[in-house]
Design a protein that fits this description.
The chain has a four-stranded mixed sheet, with helices on one face. The protein has a four-stranded mixed sheet with strand order 5-8-7-6, with no helix packed on it. The chain has helices at 23-33, 89-97; strands spanning 17-20, 37-42, 47-52, 55-61, 80-84, 104-113, 116-126, 132-143. The chain starts with 16 loop residues before the first strand and ends in a 7-residue tail after the last strand. The chain is mainly beta and 150 residues long. It folds into two domains: 1-63, 2,3-Dihydroxybiphenyl 1,2-Dioxygenase, domain 1; 79-150, 2,3-Dihydroxybiphenyl 1,2-Dioxygenase, domain 1 (Roll).
Length: 150
């Protein structure tokens, strides 16, 4: 679970850093249940840089460095992090095996993108700190009809 190098493919241009209260519990969830791995960590600072299939996230024990207001649970209110994966079923099975509740069960969502719709099979789950995570697999695209319907 612990690495000590750069993330595969280097650093993404945008990587969220999430304040957490209990790093071992967060790592157990993110790595043990969701399938992320630790690219590198600084345990002495309560920090870990995680990756999974090109998705990257940093976890950092609350230390006040980035504090803009009170940190009351659930953390991350007003944001959800979409993580695109090849298939949602393996993560759904791991969450079920861990008896971890879903925030919203798996469902299809189609959104207009230009003259097409992009389809996702997705579900939402909260991590131990309350951050809302949306895992999504692509269902492909479909062309809209002239009246704007699929």
């Amino acid at each position: 679970m612990t690495g000590d190098g750069l993330p595969a493919g280097g650093f993404n241009p945008l990587v969220p850093e999430l304040d957490v209260r209990d790093l071992p519990a967060s790592l157990a969830f993110w790595c043990g249940t969701l399938g992320f791995s630790v690219a590198y960590a600084r345990p002495e600072n309560g920090f870990a840089y995680l990756e999974r299939g090109g998705a990257q996230v940093m976890l950092n024990v609350v230390n006040g460095n980035w504090r803009t207001g009170d940190l009351e649970p659930p953390l991350g209110r007003g944001i959800n992090l979409q993580i695109t994966i090849d298939a949602v079923d393996p993560i759904l099975a791991a969450l079920d095996a861990a008896s971890w509740p879903l925030f919203r069960p798996a469902h299809e969502a189609w959104c207009r993108v230009g003259e097409e719709e992009e389809g996702l099979r997705q579900f939402l789950v909260q991590d131990p700190n309350g951050y809302l995570l949306r895992f999504a697999e692509s269902l492909g695209r479909r062309r809209l009809s002239p009246d704007g319907r699929a």
